[in-house]
Amino acid sequence: EISKENYYFGYKLFNPDDKSAQHHNAHHCLEITVNCSPNIDHCIIRSTCTVGSAVCVSGQGACPTIKHCNISDCENVGLYITDHAQGIYEDNEISNNALAGIWVKNHGNPIIRRNHIHHGRDVGVFTFDHGMGYFENCNIHRNRIAGFEVKAYANPTVVRCEIHHGQTGGIYVHEKGRGQFIENKIYANNFAGVWITSNSDPTIRANAIFNGNQGGVYIFGDGRGLIESNDIYGNALAGIQIRTNSCPIVRHNKIHDGQHGGIYVHEKGQGVIEENEVYSNTLAGVWVTTGSTPVLRKNRIHSGKQVGVYFYDNGHGVLEDNDIYNHMYSGVQIRTGSNPKIRRNKIWGGQNGGILVYNSGVYDELLSAQSRDGFNYNYVFKRSMFNYN
């Protein structure tokens, strides 16, 4: 335990031999406590204790500088920062730990830069119970669960990190988690690049989210969030999926070249989806289904290999002021009990027509649709129904 200021530890090996906690009352290999600011440099830290972290930094004024250390092959958490502790943690290697590479909780607020956090047997970084922190230029990959997990009012800031090849997802925000994720590269994760659920409300801004083995951003179970100015592409499932009463704000994103659809809103999904560019996806640009009611406004939805916007199985909502063009099928399809409001869209270039309504689809109104060649078609339909069998 280190409990006084200004110690320097360098080029040391911390490696207790006893696998039990019997002789280690604090259960930590290295503990830094209240009002303590040591410099720890080029140390190798191992812990075979199963009931305590390898490094624990706790308490007001605990503010170490830990650089160029190796915290690996431990039987619990690698680095644990809690109880208002702070500190600077740079250029460390944190790998193959039994639990998370890093835990931050209870108002812990570290600065963590250029750490390599990989091959953990659990999550890479776990912030929870009001944990915070600033994470920059870290490489987080090949952890067994998510690369970065946020829950229970945690609010980290994660900037310009690479979060990739997670065996489940990239970023998982749940149980009222928050956080700002800005300018990261999130790719090649087995499940969604970003998962948001259970009343969580993070900001996901200016990230590249690509080549996931499932979807790009997946918002479910009353999830919220601001999904803004991201480049989302090349994912195996929908670029953004919104379901089960979730209601995010989705704006200024590029969602393209997916192997599935662009945006998929289902099972009473909601949300405001505006000023995005959705293009060159394999299935529909936007799907709205099973009681969902999103507002789609001022988007450019184009060059898809199927339908532009597809309402089916009681998909509703509002579609207004969008440009919808150059799809292999129709620009908009409405079917099987769907009843969206369609206003002031420009719909052109669909190889199977502009708007196709069939199998008991309904729509309230179509106002001021304009073709690309400049002709105005001011048709207004009130409760019109067309059936094609």
UniProtKB/TrEMBL annotation:
InterPro entries: Beta_helix, Carb-bd_sugar_hydrolysis-dom, NosD_dom, Para_beta_helix_rpt-2, PbH1, Pectin_lyas_fold, Pectin_lyase_fold/virulence, SCF-Subunits/Alg-Epimerases
Protein name: F-box only protein 11-like
Keyword Transport: no
Gene3D superfamilies for the chain: Single-stranded right-handed beta-helix, Pectin lyase-like
PANTHER family cross-referenced by the UniProt entry: F-BOX ONLY PROTEIN (PTHR22990), F-BOX ONLY PROTEIN 11 (PTHR22990:SF20)
Keyword Metal-binding in record: no
GO biological process, one term: regulation of apoptotic process
Record SUPFAM superfamilies: Pectin lyase-like
Organism in which the protein naturally occurs: Gouania willdenowi (Blunt-snouted clingfish)
Positions of the Carbohydrate-binding/sugar hydrolysis domain: 84-220, 236-358
